[in-house]
Amino acid sequence: MVRRLESDERRLLGMRLRAQLLAEPAATPADAVRHLLSMQAQDWFGSLWAVALRSGATTADVEAAQAAGDVVRSWPMRGTLHWTPAEDVRWLATLTAERIDRRDATRMRQVLELDGAALGRARDVVERVLADGPASRQSLLDALVAAGQPVHAQRGPHILGWLARHGHVVMVSRTHYALHDAWVRAPRDLRGDEALAEVARRYLTSHGPATVHDLAWWTGLTVTDARRGVDAVGGALEAMEVDGTTFLHAPGLEPAEGVHLVAPFDEIVLGYADRSRTLRGEPLERMVPGANGLFLPAAMVDGAVSGTWTRTQGQQGLSVAIDPWAPIPQRRAPALRRAVRAYGAAHGTVASLA
Fold this sequence. Notes:
Blueprint: H1 7-19, H2 29-36, E1 39-40, H3 44-53, H4 59-67, E2 71-77, E3 80-85, H5 89-111, H6 116-130, E4 135-136, H7 137-146, H8 155-165, E5 169-171, E6 176-179, H9 180-183, H10 192-207, H11 212-219, H12 223-233, E7 238-242, E8 245-249, E9 259-262, H13 267-270, E10 298-301, E11 304-314, E12 317-324, H14 333-346, E13 351-353
Parallel strand pairs: 12-13
Antiparallel strand pairs: 1-3, 2-3, 4-6, 5-6, 7-8, 9-10, 10-11, 11-12
Protein name: Winged helix DNA-binding domain-containing protein
Keywords: DNA-binding
GO molecular function, one term: DNA binding
């Protein structure tokens, strides 16, 4: 049974709604991504909606921001695709690249036969192809094969992921890559404690109230490094206590409310190590059926998951069906219909509640 949230929990979740721009959208898609620093983007269509929802824009506007070079898709953290402001992608990736390299070292060498020399040769091939401008993923894989670099058994994706993680390439459309140095106009160069402070500040102001452990999980940093970053910026944040745990957030942050249809893998669900409050105590398997790693899109009421949802394309537009975990209060029905209409508008069509 979905449990009732206590008042402190409701306040915390409402504050996260506002911090994550779900109550007051940013002016543009680029502003939304810049505020959150990085947003999960492995589900292409869902990730377009996640950014559009936070900027009052259309999904086409989000693609346009990528085409303009304002935002990119890459693997800056945890080996997972994210939207990131173009200027921030290299320093953020560099901050965690070494830990990911160590994590994947055995598989890279022994299973995929990707040691330093092989990766260097692959980099040379990709850089030659991209010297003439952006190229598709398939073109890069074909060039690697032609140069004697196999791409089977996930070898190709691991090569491209390594190149992105180390700041050589970025994704500039759904399928195309470009050289980072040719595409990113004004990259920031943050290292060491300066980078730790920046990632702590940006995460806690955009995702807070959140904990040091949430930050460590989100970035893939050690708890020690996450705490170093927090200690460097702690004076610029406010704290709240819930059940004996300290949560940090932007100063003056007030809770919001509302009904939202969020994307699969959305930051409001996935952006924290502890999701128990967001899920109202329900097991994670309700969001990830079969523990297959694929998060369903969530129907949220006041920052807590109240069910999941699906969309169906029909002749007259989109139909959205809610699979509630608990009944959505009748007083929230108008807000739910507005959320459905907003989803349709972002996709250039009409959407209605099934």
